[in-house]
Predict the 3D structure of the following.
Amino acid sequence: MKLSFSGCYIRQKLSNMKALVYHGPGKKAWEDKAKPVLLQPTDAIVRITRTTICGTDLHILKGDVATVEPGRTLGHEGVGIVEEAGTAVSGFRKGDHVLISCITSCGRCAYCRKGMYSHCENGGWILGNTIDGTQAGYVRIPYADTSLYPIPSGVDEDALVMLSDIFPTGFECGVLNGQVNPGDTIAIVGAGPIGLASLLTAQFYSPAKIILIDPDPNRLEVATGFGATHVINNSNEDITATINNLTGGTGVDVAIEAVGIPATFEICQQIIAPGGRIANVGVHGKSAPLHLETLWSKNITITTGLVDTITTPLLLKTVQAEKLKPSRLITHRFALADILQAYDTFSNAAATKSLKVLLTNMD
Ligand SMILES: [Zn+2]
Ligand SMILES: [Zn+2]
């Protein structure tokens, strides 16, 4: 008994790592934490080599996400190397380089069978939410076979961190839900990382005009460099008048809401053309007005949804073929150990001109 106790103790001492831990609204720390262990035969333990910070992490730190309890390691994006795979994991083994999806899917429940992984009865968005996440030396990934993706050799792994969440979200919730077609005029409200990911992936479908709307001149300049045909600074320009000028008074075919506040959802309703699609991507914290008094007769479709990450394999191929260069969103780089500095930079985006910060952990 004594021997096994001291054995456990030594193992525990050897099995610590550093993690970015949430300690309630406004409080976080980069601190020692026990390395995760396999809990189910379908789990894998992944050593994180690269991760990043999401706008959602900032919402959690404000106390906006009630499901996140103090003590939780944050982060739902990253790539890494499999350290250990459970006995039921057939697709991955120690040493494999993997992309971690922000959505965990069991692959077997009714929602997974419909491709709605975000509603997986045993998963969904749990990483850095209801289980410990990726802003750490190691992470436990449940249902590894269906929640990890193998990284083809020779692909820029920095860029792939953008495929954990940002690119599938911008593509699925914005471009695919909005049914962007060749020749369409589309407006993207919000030029943050998600809006810019929508901008880059919308170009797969050759829309005629892509209009970016944002109050930050730096982000609008970035958007122009990324292929926006027109930009509108909503802090000093009349959005409706400019859109009417650009569309001969009809409005846009697709309006993508990539902010998550009532005002931006209202902009989408003001500028949508008859037959148009409003694709909501933003995470809304309060109710937003729906103007049925003007929209009731306009054949509008409004879509909502959390990312299912069902397009991750497709996006991986486009990155491999260099049709998509997600690393363009990386503006700042830090060592994972300097994550507190990275949070400061990311949370002061207007001053630091940051889009995505890349954190690397190369021992
Ligand atoms: Zn995210
Ligand atoms: Zn499932």
